[in-house]
Specification:
Helix content: under 10%
Shape: elongated
Distance between the termini: 22 Å
Radius of gyration: 15 Å
Number of strands: 8
Strand order of the largest sheet: 1-2-3-8-5
Number of helices: 0
Length: 107
């Protein structure tokens, strides 16, 4: 990474990293649940730190859910995102990993 690093929390299932230039990377893991097959499950998350503009948000399914789940993705705003997953079976839980990358001005 070029430039000075602003630091952050790295490791675990959630965290953040930002640079003095304003790049902000945040990530987390969310649990979504449903007991009904063929269901679109959604969950709204709030970013620990809001972005200056809407960030790019990437999603992936947890390791044990890849065979039976179909990730639809996320709709984002500067302050959070709504994660959506389609479940073709009636398993109780689905884990979704998310990663948001964008800019944030320092106060």
């Amino acid at each position: 990474v070029a430039g000075n690093t602003g630091g952050g929390t790295i490791g675990g299932t959630s965290g953040q990293y930002r640079t003095f230039e304003g790049l902000l990377i945040q990530w987390g893991r969310e649990s979504l649940s449903s007991t009904t097959a063929n269901t679109l499950i959604t969950k709204t998350i709030t970013f620990p730190l809001a972005y200056s503009n809407t960030p790019l948000v990437f999603t992936s399914l947890g390791q044990s859910d890849r065979a039976s789940s179909y990730s639809v993705g996320a709709t984002a705003s500067a302050s959070g995102a709504t994660i959506s997953v389609f479940r073709p079976d009636s398993q109780t839980y689905t884990y979704v990993n998310w990663l948001a990358i964008g800019l944030r001005s320092y106060e």
